[in-house]
């Protein structure tokens, strides 16, 4: 079965399903029309469905999953196989958004041929519709574009360069580095990149690049003048167990919500308040012992067998 086919029982139709599929050329058209592009990360089926059904245009299976899902200190440890595993789950959930897979550290830092081979894996094995790579890797972007793989560039604060940068620092703060950033952005666009993530740069630098570039910029910590915005899902809903960066806006407190639900559940189990009788399966009435008689249930009574495979007995 093709990865881009959806089994009929995979999910029920949603109101947004009739909207046209977002493609890389569609993002450029949005820039041309001045329509802001919404983007968010997702790493699994459930969150990807929520993000897609909310009408977000681009879903990035970010290598930030190394930190927010797998608990690593930075993004460097996540592997191609892990990223493919998560991209496949996201791809199964998404009908409308453009699905972009982040190529992890080490998967494109050797030869162009190695980078190309790994990118092809994301398209073939995971159903990615584009890949994202960090840094001004113009030759690789050209090779991917020649191989029909849409590319999202990523410049500014590039987390895979954390050791070279000496930490997560705002980039392009001097006229020289801002000029270099703009030159890199133009070179990536010229090489065929379809969009560019700008992370951790002054608003003014991002605004100049956005105005100069023929392709959309998608900002994170780059101010409101980019063509679109992206956030990490776990930042958006407070699931990071860490103080938020300046550019993060928390739209919900999932930590508080989940913590309270989990504590409530534990208390109910400890007080034998869960499950209730109504939440239990039963033998048919004829097979149940009469309460207070000390009799045992008659498991062999006609029709007493509960269908364990389909749980058809939900109401019994
Ligand atoms: O991995 C990621 O989540 C990202 C975004 C922050 C752009 O690269």
Pick out its properties.
12% strand, alpha/beta, elongated, 36% helix, binds 3-methyl-2-oxobutanoic acid, eight-stranded parallel beta barrel, disordered N terminus
Task: Give an account of the 3D structure.
This protein has 316 residues and is an alpha/beta fold. It is 36% helix and 12% strand. Helix 6 (138-146) runs parallel beside helix 8 and helix 8 runs parallel beside helix 9. The two termini are 38 Å apart. The model is unreliable at 1-10 (pLDDT under 50). The structure holds 3-methyl-2-oxobutanoic acid. 3-methyl-2-oxobutanoic acid binds at residues 41, 60, 62-64, 102, 197, 199, 220, 230, 232.
Low-confidence stretches: 1-10
Major β-sheet profile = 8 strands, parallel, barrel
* Fraction in helix: 25-40%
Strand order of the biggest β-sheet: 1-2-3-4-5-6-7-8
The ordered H/E elements are: HEHEHHEHEHEHHEHEEHH
Mean pLDDT: 92
How many beta-strand elements? 8
Distance between the termini: 38 Å
Judging from the principal axes of the Cα atoms, what is the shape?
A: elongated
Strand content: 5-15%
Bound molecules: 3-methyl-2-oxobutanoic acid
What's a concise summary of this model?
The protein is α/β, with parallel strands linked by helices and 316 residues long.
Question: Secondary structure elements and their pairing?
Answer:
Elements: H1 24-33, E1 37-41, H2 45-53, E2 58-61, H3 65-68, H4 80-93, E3 98-102, H5 112-126, E4 130-134, H6 138-146, E5 151-156, H7 162-165, H8 175-191, E6 195-199, H9 203-212, E7 217-220, E8 228-231, H10 233-236, H11 254-270
Parallel strand pairs: 1-2, 1-8, 2-3, 3-4, 4-5, 5-6, 6-7, 7-8
Bound molecules: 3-methyl-2-oxobutanoic acid.
């Amino acid at each position: 079965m093709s990865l881009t086919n959806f089994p009929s029982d995979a999910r029920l139709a949603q109101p947004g399903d009739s909207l046209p599929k977002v493609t890389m050329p569609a993002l450029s058209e949005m820039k041309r029309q001045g329509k802001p592009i919404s983007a968010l990360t997702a790493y699994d089926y459930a969150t990807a469905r929520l993000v897609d059904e909310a009408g977000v245009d681009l879903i990035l299976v970010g290598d930030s999953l190394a930190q927010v899902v797998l608990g690593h200190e930075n993004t460097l440890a996540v592997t191609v196989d892990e990223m493919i595993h998560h991209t496949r789950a996201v791809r199964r959930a998404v009908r409308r958004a453009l699905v972009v897979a982040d190529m992890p550290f080490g998967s494109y830092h050797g030869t162009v041929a190695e980078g190309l081979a790994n990118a092809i894996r994301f398209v073939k094995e995971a159903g990615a519709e584009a890949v994202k790579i960090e840094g001004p890797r113009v030759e690789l972007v050209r090779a991917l574009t020649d191989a029909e793989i849409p590319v999202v560039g990523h410049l500014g604060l590039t987390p895979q360069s954390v050791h070279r940068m000496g930490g997560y620092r705002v980039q392009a703060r001097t006229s020289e580095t801002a000029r270099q950033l703009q030159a890199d952005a133009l070179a990536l666009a010229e090489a065929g990149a379809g969009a560019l993530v700008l992370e951790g740069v002054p608003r003014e630098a991002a605004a100049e690049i956005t105005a100069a570039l023929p392709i959309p910029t998608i900002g994170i910590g780059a101010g409101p003048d980019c063509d679109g915005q992206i956030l990490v899902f776990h930042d958006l809903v407070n699931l990071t167990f860490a103080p938020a960066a300046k550019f993060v806006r928390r739209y919900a407190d999932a930590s508080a919500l989940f913590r309270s639900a989990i504590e409530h559940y534990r208390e109910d189990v400890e007080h034998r308040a869960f499950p209730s009788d109504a939440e239990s399966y039963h033998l048919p009435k004829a097979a149940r012992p009469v309460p207070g008689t000390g009799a045992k249930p008659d498991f062999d009574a006609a029709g007493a067998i509960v269908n364990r495979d389909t749980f058809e007995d939900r109401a019994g």
